[in-house]
Specification:
It is a single chain. About 5% of the residues have low confidence. A hairpin with a 4-residue loop joins strand 8 and strand 9. The two termini are about 25 Å apart. Strands 2-9-8-4-6 form a 5-stranded mixed beta sheet, with no helix packed on it. A 4-stranded antiparallel beta sheet has the order 1-3-7-5, with no helix packed on it. It is elongated, with a radius of gyration of 27 Å. It is built from 4 helices and 9 strands; from the N terminus they run H-H-E-E-E-E-E-E-E-E-E-H-H. The chain is α+β, with helices and mostly antiparallel strands and about 190 residues long.
Length: about 190
C-alpha cells in the first residue's frame, strides 16, 4: 500500500512549521535603568541592565570620561568602563557622578551597544534649600540634537530576528499559494482526462 500526500497538505504543514516564532523573535530587547535617574555631583546611582540573555558579561561605558566613574563588585574603582558578570540576564554597576549635566550610560557586549540610559546630574549645593513648599515634579527634559547623534546603531542580531519574524509568514503564504496552484491544475487535468 502506497501513501500519497497531497501538495496542499505538504504546503499547510510547511506553513505551520515556518510560522513557529524563532528564539530571536521571542527575546526581549535589553533595557538599562538608573535608580535614581536624577542625582547631584558626588552622589551614586545604581545602573541595572536586564534582558541580556545568554551573555556572560556586560560592558558599561559613559559618553564622557569626565562625567564620573563606575564602582561595584568586580569593578576597578574609578574606571569609565566596567565589565560586569551577567547573572540571570541582568548586570548591575554603580556610577558616581563628577560633573553636572546629562550623562549617557550604555551597556553592550564590548563590541556593540545594546541599550543606554540618560541620567541627569545637578551641581551639589552648599546647603539644603528650605522646604517651606512641597516640591513639584519637574517636567521631563527634552533630548538635544547632540543626544540623538549619540544613539547607537541597532544590534544586528536583533534586526536579523525581526527580519526573520517578518519573512517567515511571507514564505508560508508563498508556499500555500504554490500548493494551491498545483492542486487546482492537477484537478483540472483529471477532469479533462489528461
Amino acid at each position: 500500500m502506497r501513501i500519497r500526500t497531497s501538495p496542499l497538505a505538504v504546503a499547510v504543514l510547511l506553513a505551520a512549521l515556518s510560522s513557529v516564532p524563532s528564539p530571536a523573535s521571542e527575546a526581549a530587547a535589553p533595557t538599562v535603568v538608573a535608580a535614581p535617574s536624577s542625582l547631584s555631583v558626588g552622589e551614586v546611582t545604581t545602573i541595572t541592565a536586564s534582558g541580556l540573555g545568554g551573555l556572560a558579561s556586560a560592558t558599561f561605558g559613559i559618553d564622557d570620561a569626565s562625567a564620573g566613574a563606575f564602582s561595584g563588585d568586580g569593578v576597578e574603582t574609578g574606571t569609565t568602563t566596567a565589565a560586569v558578570p551577567v547573572s540571570e540576564g541582568s548586570a548591575v554597576v554603580e556610577f558616581t557622578a563628577t560633573r553636572s549635566g546629562d550623562v549617557v550610560i550604555a551597556v553592550g557586549t564590548g563590541e556593540s551597544v545594546l541599550a543606554e540610559v540618560t541620567i541627569s546630574v545637578t551641581a551639589a549645593s552648599a546647603e539644603p534649600a528650605p522646604s517651606t513648599v512641597s516640591p513639584t515634579p519637574a517636567p521631563p527634559t527634552a533630548t538635544s540634537a547632540a543626544d540623538d547623534s549619540a544613539q547607537a546603531e541597532p544590534d544586528s542580531e536583533a534586526e536579523a530576528g525581526r527580519f526573520a519574524f517578518a519573512l517567515i509568514p511571507l514564505i508560508a503564504a508563498a508556499i500555500i499559494v504554490v500548493g494551491g496552484i498545483i492542486v487546482i491544475s492537477r484537478g483540472r487535468r483529471k477532469r479533462r482526462g489528461d
